[in-house]
Write a structure and sequence with these properties.
This protein has 215 residues and is mainly α. Helix content is 76%, strand content 3%.
């Protein structure tokens, strides 16, 4: 089966996920105080996150939006986020608590479910600015949480960068933005689904009216 460039990029992101999990595992050979494990995992996660926007952009620009791509792209996103958070619960539990992972992952599945229902009803709900902000904050929070496993702070000249506190602040901000964006998405979904049901009721009434006149 021929696979176009956007779908190939999406598949690359899916392949990156087990590699990312292996780097964060106790079996990774380059562990130690130099932080090679944390740096490699952070770079890989950022690269995988960058491909998320790239494949969609190329699919639209090249006119290569396919059913396979529409299926794989959100699936890859959900697996990547879920894998990273579950791994971080074990890897850095001081920053990523179990309840935090549950809230963020639950939000992803909720949105997926609403999108499926919307699609079956014949309409779509575009990502809001809050959803886009959530994606950016999520990348920052996961990356900083990985780095905070090795460093509490970085000393850059006379400046001190509080890696651990940035990670904690980012992960809690991610929870807030995820929750607010989920509510915002649900409100938009409810308005459209309510409007669609009203249209169906009107159509049914008109149809019964026409049938009554004919008989």
């Amino acid at each position: 089966m021929h696979m176009n460039l956007p779908n190939s990029i999406t598949m690359t992101r899916i392949v990156m996920i087990p590699l990312f999990l292996w780097i964060l595992s106790p079996h990774f050979p380059w562990q130690g105080p130099n932080g090679a494990q944390e740096i490699l995992a952070s770079i890989l996660f950022v690269l995988a996150s960058m491909t998320d926007g790239l494949d969609g952009y190329l699919a639209r620009k090249r006119g290569q939006i396919t059913t396979m791509g529409m299926l794989l792209d959100p699936l890859a996103d959900k697996i990547m986020v879920t894998s990273a958070l579950i791994a971080l619960v074990a890897y850095n539990p001081q920053v990523v608590k179990v309840w935090i992972a549950v809230v963020i992952i639950g939000r992803e599945f909720l949105i997926s479910g609403l999108r499926s229902i919307a699609s079956s009803e014949g309409f779509t709900i575009t990502a809001s600015e809050l959803g886009k902000l959530k994606t950016v904050v999520q990348i920052v929070s996961v990356t900083s949480a990985i780095l905070a496993h090795r460093w509490n702070e970085w000393h850059i000249g006379l400046l001190v960068f509080p890696v651990k506190w940035v990670a904690i602040a980012a992960i809690y901000f991610t929870v807030i933005v995820s929750t607010v964006s989920a509510v915002d998405y649900f409100v938009g979904f409810w308005k459209k689904i309510d409007h669609a049901s009203k249209d169906r009721r009107k159509a049914a009434v008109l149809s019964r009216g026409r049938s009554a006149r004919i008989t």
